[in-house]
Amino acid sequence: MIDFLELENKLKKNEISNCYIFCGSDERSIKKNINKIIDISVKKDFLDLNYVQLDGMTVDKETIINACETLPFMSDKKVVVIYRANFLRDKVDKSMEKVSKEINEYVKKLPTECILIMYYIFDNDREKESNKVKKISKIATGVKFSKLKGSMLQKKVKTIFDEKNKKIDKVELALFCNAVENNMDIIENEVEKLCCFALGREITSEDIMEIVSSKNDNDIFNLVDYLSQRKPRRALDILNELLFKGESVTSILRMIERQFKLLFDIKLGVESSKTKETMSRELKLHPYICEKMMIQSKKFTLLQIQKSIELCLNTEKLLKSSSVDAKTEMELLIIETASV
């Protein structure tokens, strides 16, 4: 198995394999690289004749063989893509298991003029490639499209800024990657917005915090900030926005708990005369975020933060031990916390 950054490097050199197995949580990157392979391998004038899409949920062996063994027209190569190839997962029904075994055998004798690409999307970011994918990757090119993190994400995002001829320093780049949702579609949109906003000058941290659409961590920061200002109505608005985005009540509650625990540690650090640099290193926070939380911590006393954590834990215990209305309990938590 290789990662998609290695695949992209190979495609830049026009190094194309005969068969690809793609899997991962980043469907946009999967489709983008499929299009790159098609652009390299198939003439646009004859795309309709040399590019075939098959639905992996309904496909059978005969359809796949027919698509792969039909000779390309006015081209050296043809591309066959099987999307939603869920027969590559470990646990499937008997019909899909049969297709999986047949495909595994057929790939060994795939015609050289055909490029076969099969892919399926992970159900969540924690999912790993199936044993079937590991096995077939011994005779095909297996590529895992995981969401990038840390320095790898920063490196990828830097290339997007470079493509737009926009300079961004390391500190601002790290802040941007920390602030934006880890989704390449969203990242590209936010880069475009930021470049337009900072037209003719360098990007600043303030630009990023003002322009970039906040991810859920920033929403939680703002929610807690409204609690510190005793504005429960505004905090409830953010709660409803998060629920509308599809966040569960339990995940929102965990994020609020984490925010208060961080505030507690930062409050202790401030009272112990620790520097921003020391705390950002100890708590693994970006210095700009740490500075904002230091300011936020001044709006609470240690006792208020402790009480807020207790209220969160009580709400968590209630949600786990009884059949209450989760949304109502979260609303009550916000109202109570705002009056601590």
From TrEMBL:
Keyword Nucleotidyltransferase in annotation: yes
Residues in DNA polymerase III delta N-terminal domain copies: 20-144
User: What's the EC number here?
Assistant: 2.7.7.7
GO molecular function terms noted in the UniProt entry: DNA-directed DNA polymerase activity
Q: The DNA polymerase III delta subunit-like C-terminal domain covers which part of the protein?
A: 218-336
Q: Which domain of life is it from?
A: Bacteria
Sorted alphabetically, which SUPFAM superfamilies does this protein's record hold? P-loop containing nucleoside triphosphate hydrolases (SSF52540), post-AAA+ oligomerization domain-like (SSF48019)
Family per record: Belongs to the DNA polymerase HolA subunit family.
**Stated name of the protein:** DNA polymerase III subunit delta
What species is given as this protein's source? Clostridium aestuarii
